[in-house]
Amino acid sequence: IDFHQSNILPDKNEGDHKIFRSVLSSKSANRASDKVTAMNLDDSALDEEAYNFLRLHELGVIATINRTNALHAAAVYYSISEKGIIHILTKSKTNKARDIISQQLVALAVYDEQTLATVQLEAQAELETDVLVIKKVYTQITRSRKHGSTIKKPPVLSVNKGDFVVIRLTPVLA
User: Fold this and answer.
1) Rounded distance, CA 104 to CA 25, Å?
2) Mean pLDDT of the chain
3) 88 φ/ψ angles, rounded to the nearest 5 degrees
4) Second label for 23, Cα 20 to 30 Å away, from 34, 35, 69, 120?
């Protein structure tokens, strides 16, 4: 199925906490007025609302599966391109990097504490090979951030598990 656009719908409403899922439709079934083109998302499983939500955040939880089908989850900083491609930075010998080598399907969840909204997506993960993209992602993710009253670098900079790798996440279901 060639997915083009999704519509975010409330999946669960537990109190004020909303969990969103996207219902995907095939490209051939979309009307011209339904196309999301403002952010170049023509071939993305993300719709404009999910894309904008992800652009406003930078921290999520990625879930991976290893060779023995054990689950692993980790908080990660991410960046998102205008085409809806998500990138994370990790080290080559971390669980998530090793898991992605054996099982490319991952999940990413991003939460907004103020609105109590969550975007959850499934994505195909692979190592990024474009040197310009790698440099851009490294610069974006490794910048210092304010945490409370202190400014800190992201934890990935202090992980001693191999070399840096950038992983590209192409959403297949959001």
Assistant:
1) 23
2) 80
3) -125, 160
4) 69
